[in-house]
Amino acid sequence: MTYQPDEIDSMLRDAGIRVTSQRRTVIAALVQSHDHPTAEDVHARAKTVDRSVSFATVYRALATLVDAAIVQRISVDDGPSRFEMAPKTEHDHLVDVDNGEVLELASEELAALRSRLAAELGYEILSHHSVLRVRKLQKL
Amino acid sequence: MTYQPDEIDSMLRDAGIRVTSQRRTVIAALVQSHDHPTAEDVHARAKTVDRSVSFATVYRALATLVDAAIVQRISVDDGPSRFEMAPKTEHDHLVDVDNGEVLELASEELAALRSRLAAELGYEILSHHSVLRVRKLQKL
DNA sequence: CTTGGTGCAAATGATTTGCAAGCCT
DNA sequence: AGGCTTGCAAATCATTTGCACCAAG
Fold it and tell me: A119 and A56, same structural domain?
């Protein structure tokens, strides 16, 4: 999935937030990262593009972008929050307990079941955050 | 669900960790709490039983108990971790975005689907942590 | 212009840790 | 006895905030 430079600007404008070079940089860092970076990682990557971006700005940008549903926050039980571009298709995260690897599980079926169950309780789901701690099955 | 006093001791012994009055107190506080308390809440409740329990001990006890799978940690995106006795039946958590209320959704069907999907990817699920941000549906 | 955004450094909140003393096995 | 636990206070880690300046609409 690639983004055109002005595609990023549109995302910001559409969300009604100002377009700044720092936000562009943060988004660019996230777009290129497929490893669910922490705020610190994002800052490090953003700095390779613009040495002057501060930590505070990265945190503020991430918070703003999460609010705008452009970015998604993933909290693993311990350790800092991780971030990724908001997925078009919702998915769960599998964290391999042996090596810390994070992979994604997208299932239409799972999403449908979840909303059905929530609806039965009288709720609509705004967003979800699901982390499964897993271990590789033995090869037989 | 009630626990006998010595049932708690057995849980600790079975997990191979020492039985201390502080750990008993922490567990007792959790058993009586059905509101997913934070570490601070647990500390406050524990102190009503034993004024001398320290914050550090509560944190250490909770960490130990989570390791031993006696207690489960629930992390909501912002704000401190919350805790509950490890459920016999796994469930998801619904967080009402309007009032912060946390309720539980237990579904055999959901659990089954999740493990099936994980298995298809070659993984077994050790535990899961799923938080749905929800809003009450309008009454029609 | 005017409001929102930024950098810096200091502040905060949650959780962890070093150390000396105490309790469990 | 010997090691795991505790309490206390200080330390750490992630994240947030106050403030003066700058930039976007």
Answer: no
Distance CA B72, CA A59 (A): 29
Assess whether A103 and A47 both reside in one domain. no
- Amino acid letter, B90: E
Assess whether B17 (CB) lies less than 7 A from strand D. yes
Can you give the distance from the CA of residue A62 to the C1' of nucleotide D2 in angstroms? 50
- Average pLDDT estimate for B64-74: 94
- Residues contacting nucleic strand C by the 7 Å CB criterion are A 17-18, 20, 22-23, 50, 52-57, 60-61, 64, 78; B 13, 18-21, 38-40, 55-56, 59-60, 63, 79-81
B111 shares a domain with B67: no
The residue segments making up the domain with residue B96 are 92-134
State pTM to two decimals.
0.82
* pLDDT > 70 fraction of chain B, expressed in percent and rounded: 98
Burial A86-111 (b: 16+ CB within 10 A, else e): beeebbbbbbbeeeeebeebebeebb
Is residue A140, in this structure, part of any structural domain at all? no
Q: Is the CB of B98 under 7 A from strand D?
A: no
Q: Out of B96, B128, B133, name the one closest to residue A128 (CB).
A: B133
Q: CB–CB of A134 and B118 under 8 A?
A: yes
Residue pLDDT, tens place only, B87-128: 888 899 998 888 888 889 999 999 999 999 999 999 999 888
3-state secondary structure of B83: strand
